[in-house]
Design a protein that fits this description.
The structure holds two protein chains of two kinds. By secondary structure, chain A is of the alpha/beta class. Chain A has helices spanning about 20-25, 30-35, 55-65, 80-95, 110-120, 140-145, 165-170, 195-205, 260-275, 280-295, 295-320, 345-355, 380-395; strands at about 45, 105-110, 125-130, 150-155, 175-180, 210-215, 240-245, 255-260, 330, 355, 360, 370-375. In chain A, about 40% of the residues lie in helices and about 15% in strands. Chain B is extended and about 65 Å long. A four-stranded antiparallel sheet of chain B has the order 2-3-1-4. In chain B, strands 5-6 form a two-stranded antiparallel sheet. Chain B has five helices and six strands. Chain B has helices spanning about 5-10, 15-25, 25-40, 75-85, 110-120, and strands spanning about 60-70, 90-95, 100-105, 125-135, 140, 145. The chains are: A alpha/beta, B alpha+beta.
């Protein structure tokens, strides 16, 4: 029987929302995004992606593939040639051999890979240890997978490297996984091979799975990147997550990958095939070109970041913002503790008074309080101008 | 490549203190190396790349391709150096292929350049033929794309 319009009860969308989603905090950077967007002449050091445009040869290869009509699905796991090429590259970079048929999955950005790794491995109530400050997606992804994030602090005295005793003190009988993300966003910290070796004991003792987000691995400025999977006996209990966004300036293409044991990657592939089917074909074609022929441009970009890193980090220290040496990614993480303002107050006043946008460190976890994330993935001219404005701001405090 | 040269080749205005900050070296150290490079003739000049097409005053550029008779002992050098002395000439290069020298010339008008070639270059002893190509539009110079396109936008703040 048809109801008259008057009798339809009012619709309450809230009743239909998922509790976990409702409980997720809104992104802490939203406020800054809105403020900067309305502002003319602001310099943004708040951007977590390269300022370089994807090299032309990569874009051109994608255009050619579209002209050729290469527009169909690929295998769930990703194009075989791309999987083979990545496995070869990883073998060269890390000395680790993964089977292109079973031990790699191409994902839609590393973001998807992070989500899949938690969903494929956590059961409801399982705990995953996440060192903070860190990228903002890990905690929500763990919660969406039904897990419980256990945030552990890192600090300036260790240059934001994760300490084994910190991990050990957070382990409970429900702990199943440890997330690592080095080189780190937001701190620019890295973990050397020796640092990772210190963690291995506690990982093995507690039978933890290590999920290692290494998306900034190509952006290491003192020595080459070390992966937890390289340690003796650790490869099988590590899922490496990586992608081309930062190394090849390909953020918008959304290409990432997961490497690991057949059972783990297989489980991730199952979720991937029902949710994503496959990563975008044209982006996979571009990724193949980037890895096969893009090394020179990649090194050029890294060199430019390295120059800016020195310029900017030394500039911060010169104007009175203490900054430890950032060794990876493209972030400097200076302390504002001597200036009598919280991260958030400092960032907001700096933006309003001098039009320089940075991200307050507390957005990335409680241990980020008292720090600012400044991205130096912007031009040298802007960095120099930003330092001048920050100096003016400090002189008015 | 020398890191200082790499920076200066992209930006002649980079000061020793900026270069020092970029390379993590001392300013004195960088200044001294720049002076040495200047003294050794490695750094020849600090120039500005100008997009002349943005200005009303017309400047005309042409590329000349010359066939030159090889001379005993001096090869192509004597003719090339002779051509290089004219202030109208921007560059002189020995090239492979159908021609021997590639010369870029600047003038106030096409007529200006045509007369210059006819009066000064073509009659030179050793120059067997000239072919003048006027430049109609420049798309890229010294690695810089001159045709203005808006820069793709990034989001202003991202995690």
């Amino acid at each position: 029987m048809k109801q008259s319009l008057k009798n339809i009860p009012s619709w309450n969308a809230d009743r239909h929302l998922n509790r976990t989603v409702k409980g997720m905090p809104p992104s802490g950077i939203r406020k800054f995004f809105d403020l900067v967007s309305e502002m003319d002449g602001a310099i943004s050091l708040g951007v977590g992606e390269p300022d370089f445009v994807t090299p032309w040869h990569v874009r051109e290869a994608c255009i050619f593939s579209l002209e050729s009509g290469d527009t169909h699905y690929t295998s769930n796991k990703g194009m075989p040639e791309l999987r083979e090429t990545i496995c070869e590259q990883v073998s060269k970079d890390l000395g680790l051999n993964y089977d292109p048929a079973e031990e790699i999955l191409i994902t839609t950005g590393v973001s998807e890979a992070v989500d899949l790794a938690f969903r494929a491995t956590l059961n409801p109530g399982d705990e995953a240890i996440v060192p903070e400050p860190c990228y903002v997606a890990y905690t929500p992804d763990i919660m969406l997978a039904g897990g419980i994030p256990s945030m552990v602090p890192t600090g300036l005295k260790d240059e934001f490297r994760l300490q084994p005793e910190t991990v050990a003190s957070a382990v409970t009988d429900k702990t199943r996984a440890l997330l690592l993300s080095y080189p780190n966003n937001p701190t620019g910290a890295i973990m050397t091979r020796a640092d990772l070796e210190d963690l291995a004991d506690v990982v093995v003792e507690n039978d933890l799975l290590v999920i290692s987000d290494e998306v900034y691995s190509k952006l290491c400025y003192s020595g080459s990147h070390a992966s937890f999977a390289q340690l003796e006996g650790m490869k099988e209990r590590t899922i490496i997550l990586n992608g081309l966004s930062k190394s090849h300036a390909m953020t918008g293409w959304r290409i990432g990958y997961a490497l690991g044991d057949e059972a783990l990657v297989g489980a991730m592939t199952k979720v991937h095939q029902y949710t994503m089917l496959c990563a975008p074909t044209m982006a996979q074609v571009a990724a193949l070109e980037a890895i096969q022929k893009g090394e020179e441009e990649m090194l050029h970009m890294r060199h430019e970041y390295d120059l800016r890193r020195r310029l900017f980090a030394s500039g911060l220290n010169r104007i009175g913002l203490d900054c430890f040496e950032p060794r990876g990614a493209f972030y400097a993480f200076p302390s504002v503790k001597d200036w009598g303002l919280s991260s958030e107050e400092f960032a907001e006043r700096l933006l309003r008074e001098q039009k320089v946008a940075v991200v307050p460190g507390n957005v990335f976890g409680p241990s980020g309080e008292g720090f600012l994330r400044c991205s130096y993935a912007t031009s040298r001219e802007e960095l120099i101008e930003a330092l001048d404005r920050m100096e003016t701001f400090l002189s008015g405090l | 490549m020398n890191e200082i040269l790499e920076i200066l080749s992209e930006n002649a205005k980079a000061t020793p203190s900026e270069i020092a900050a970029l390379l993590g070296r001392s300013e004195e150290d960088v200044s001294k190396e720049i002076r040495d490079l200047e003294d050794a003739g490695v750094i020849r000049k600090y120039i500005t790349l100008i997009n002349w097409e943005k200005l009303d005053q017309s400047l005309v550029f042409a590329v000349l391709e010359l066939k030159v008779a090889l001379q005993r002992k001096t090869g192509y050098d004597a003719v090339a150096e002779r051509i290089a002395r004219f202030s109208e000439v921007d560059s002189v290069r020995l090239i492979s292929g159908d021609h021997d020298l590639s010369v870029t010339v600047r003038g106030k008008s096409m007529k200006d350049i045509a007369y210059f070639v006819a009066e000064k270059i073509a009659p030179l002893e050793g120059v067997q033929s000239t072919c003048t190509h006027f430049i109609l539009k420049s798309y890229k110079e010294h690695g810089v794309i001159l045709t203005d396109k808006p820069k793709p936008k990034r989001l202003v703040v991202t995690p």
